[in-house]
Amino acid sequence: MPDPIDIAVGSKLAEIRKKRGLTQTDLSKEVGLTFQQIQKYEKGHNRISAGKLLRFAKSLNVRVESFFPNNGNLEQSAEEVSREKRELAHAFQSMDRQSQSTFLNIVHSLAHLEDSTSV
């Protein structure tokens, strides 16, 4: 299971990349990685090393601190991600099976749409 801090940092990477009008493929070429690796970083599935974080900062023309939500307060950011996950899980559990199935189909469709637009 991805670490909440890795998810928060990856989410900021995606946010900054999108604000710059770059696709995952664009950024991957800038830093010498595959777009799949960028995808894993942005989703928090892989931890970004300090060296790669510095490369991202230089490519995106931001300070390294920009990747850390709440001015670097990672514990608070991790708590926010965890809170959001709990809220999502609670809402999902309160649904009937048909609604859960529909919800999952929507989430998978959105994830697929995000993946296809980032190529």
Report on the structure:
It is a single chain. It is built from seven helices and no strands. It is an all-alpha fold. It has a single domain, classed as 434 Repressor (Amino-terminal Domain). It is globular, with a radius of gyration of 16 Å.
Topology (SSEs and partners):
Elements: H1 4-19, H2 24-31, H3 35-43, H4 50-60, H5 69-72, H6 74-93, H7 97-117
Helix pairs in contact: 1-3, 1-6, 2-3
The gyration radius over C-alpha positions equals 16 Å
The H/E string reads: HHHHHHH
Q: Into how many domains do the coordinates divide?
A: 1
Calculate the terminal CA-CA distance, rounded to whole Å.
25 Å
Give the DSSP E fraction (strand runs of 2 or more residues).
Answer: under 5%
For this structure, the quaternary state is single chain
CATH class: Mainly Alpha
Low-confidence stretches: none
| Main beta-sheet strand count, sense and barrel state | none
Tell me the CATH superfamily. lambda repressor-like DNA-binding domains
CATH topology: 434 Repressor (Amino-terminal Domain)
The appropriate CATH architecture is Orthogonal Bundle
The number of distinct helices, counting runs of at least 4 residues, comes to: 7
**Pairing-aware structural class of the strands and helices?**
mainly alpha
Mean pLDDT across all residues, rounded?
85
- The total beta strand count reads 0
